[in-house]
Design brief:
Mean pLDDT: 90
Distance between the termini: 33 Å
Number of strands: 3
Structural class: alpha+beta
Strand content: 5-15%
Order of helices and strands: HEEHHHEH
Radius of gyration: 16 Å
Number of domains: 1
Length: 141
């Protein structure tokens, strides 16, 4: 829930304060906020059909739910990771329903070529935490 609220709040600021394509430097030579209307899936892949991207996101959530159903009961790290993934996915799904595109704005252009948003960052960190939890589990076994 926290991820979803943070995502909605930041996207609302961008929607009301920026024109599409507008960019403002936040941290000199490191971070810009650049308003992008992203019609594509992760890293520009998977086409630009909002319905297809929503269905794919829901399928991935269903697979993750099934695959980690037992681990969520046993591990706080997996619960946090899963919450980040679900919150981020819901944030992007809501954007696609509301606008037909996702509001992206976090721009580390000197070190990363893609503009992204809080939801994307939470999904990426959540997946990383799931991988870490699996590595830790295998190490203990």
């Amino acid at each position: 829930m926290v991820v979803f609220v943070l995502d909605r709040w930041t996207k609302t600021i961008v929607l009301h304060s920026f024109m599409p394509g507008e960019s403002r430097e936040v941290v000199p030579h490191l971070l810009w906020w650049t308003y992008v209307q992203n019609t594509h899936g992760a890293f520009g892949m998977f086409g630009n059909s909002p319905l297809l991207l929503i269905v794919l996101a829901l399928l991935v959530l269903a697979v993750f739910t099934y695959a980690f159903r037992d681990a969520v009961k046993r591990s706080s790290l997996v619960r946090i990771a899963f919450g980040m993934i679900v919150g981020g996915a819901i944030g992007n799904i809501v954007d696609r329903f509301q606008h037909r595109w996702v509001v992206d704005f976090i721009d580390f252009r000197t070190i990363w070529p893609n503009v992204f948003n809080v939801a994307d960052a939470c999904i990426s960190v959540g997946v990383g935490l799931l991988v870490l939890s699996q590595l830790l589990r295998e190490k203990r076994a």
